[in-house]
Task: structure prediction
Amino acid sequence: MVLLITGLMDIGASLLLSGIFFYTEHEYGWGPLKNLLLASAQGLMYVGGALMAHPLTVRWRRWGPMGVLAGLQGGMTFFALIIMPVAASPMAMVTLLLAYTLISAAVWPILESLVTRGANPHQMSRRVSIYNLVWSGGAAVTVALTGTILHLYPLGLFLIAALSHAAAGGLAYRAIRSNSSSPTAGELAHMEPEPQLLRIRRLALWLARISLPAVFVLGYSLLAILPSLPVLEGMNTAGKTLVSSVWMAARFLAFLLAGMTTAWHTRPRLLLIASAVMLLAFWGITLRPSDLLGMPGLACGGIDLASMIAWQIALGLAMGMIYSGSLYFGMVLSHGSTRHGGYHEALIGLGAAIGPGVGALTQSIWPGQIVYGVAGVSAVMMVTLALATAAGVILGRRKET
Result:
């Protein structure tokens, strides 16, 4: 039940938090600056919403987590629907979309707590992997089809999101009186994490806390500028969204691989390696070989597009590793609490606010020059990579009890 709700939730969220940038480019003619500003504003709202999750489950304890989920899905359905009659006004659409974003962020910590409740480390790893596969698979397919939806019926973006949330809310409502939604369901006792992980718990937690926001610094910045990348010029919106979803498909593969092995459970430094790969992949996606080498003929030969797709695969694999590690280390070391799930999602929102915010600043100074936006986001990424490296060196030397 929880996984089905997750899948339905993800369809709506993917359309309105990821696919929305293709909508604004298609309907409003927005370029990188306005899309980056929108992404940054969504990130700020996401932080607030994520931190609301635990207080909501405490405040409405008698309804249980499923009751809270049902209410949140109802709110998201409402906002997705009322956007439709005012969507011709960018100001009205963005205002309502930000309210939707605030509510959506409160959903994920509750789902994460429900998925991991009562699990020992091995079971938690398996559940986290399945959970990641559900939402990432839904995101990849949804974003790939966003362009087709926009071509057929642009407002379908909001209608499909509303229907998905209504269905998810209905499922949660049906489960309110079941044993699975008892008020204490998310806080059951867990077995202790692996002894090797406990010995390096500070290192694992700090690397997770630093590298996770970096994923979304890059991810939301990339989503905001993808519709305007020169390599995709000449493609219709359907083609753009299809090509732009490759990294999401690769992220799905990373989650699948993470679920097949437990070797990474006690190797948090893999997050540091993945962060470095992520930065290189960002450059590979946004900078065309034909421009870097001064050989315009490469673009005609499809080298630019092939390079962009290949680097998307590297990006998705790195992102999947970081997200899997961050969620696992955090949840297994906090016993699957909703409170930690809220912190996890708040870090996501923080990254989503900072990265696009820096990108928007560069675009306001150098309008239309995407390379400066790439440089600004890269600077943030390099700072986080330096912090992660410092944490790895300093905490790696300390012995923990």
Q: What stands out?
A: The chain has one domain: 2-396. The longest helix spans residues 121-152.
